[in-house]
Amino acid sequence: MEKHGNHVARSLEVVGYKWALLIVRELLDGPRRFTQISRALPDANQKMITARLRELEAAGVVSRVAYAEVPPRVEYSLTPRGRALRPVVEALRSWGKSLPAR
Predict the structure, then answer these.
(1) What is the CA 98 to chain-centroid distance, rounded?
(2) Confidence (pLDDT) at 9
(3) Distance CA 47, CA 53 (A)
(4) Does residue 102 form part of some domain?
(5) Scanning 24, 29, 31, 79, which has its CA 20 to 30 A from the CA of 39?
(6) Cα 1 from Cα 98, distance rounded (Å)
(7) Percent helix, strand, coil in the chain (nearest 5)?
(8) Which tens digit of pLDDT belongs to each residue from 59-101?
(9) For residue 75, which of 39, 37, 31, 35 has the smallest C-alpha distance?
């Protein structure tokens, strides 16, 4: 069990922080600009979203592309590692349906 537990712990080090999986959920439908992500997560402040995007990028889950345009345009998308989280997000969505409303 310890070996399996280590894999879970390592996974949670990447996506276990508040807002991380919700950002991944937003990017599952395709590339998004920061403002699109921010609007989809109205309870998250911009500083938190920025921190999570940087962490997810450092972990190889999210890719950031800055276009040389005026005004500047930056898009975030999932890497193959990030897209592999789709079944995790879908399983959590299904599991969440069974929880009582708050």
Answers:
(1) 23
(2) 86
(3) 10
(4) no
(5) 79
(6) 27
(7) 55, 15, 30
(8) 999 999 999 989 889 999 999 999 999 999 999 999 999 988 8
(9) 31
User: How many structural domains are present in the chain?
Assistant: 1
**Which element (helix H / strand E) includes 72?**
none
Is residue 49 included in any domain, yes or no? yes
Write the CB contacts of 61 (distance below 8 Å, at least 6 apart in sequence).
14, 15, 24, 78, 79, 81, 82, 85
Query: Which pair of tokens denotes residue 9?
Result: 């712990």
Burial (0-12, 13-18, 19+ Cβ within 10 Å), 37: buried
Q: Report the pLDDT value the prediction gives residue 1, as an integer from 0 to 100.
A: 46
Q: Is residue 86 part of a domain?
A: yes
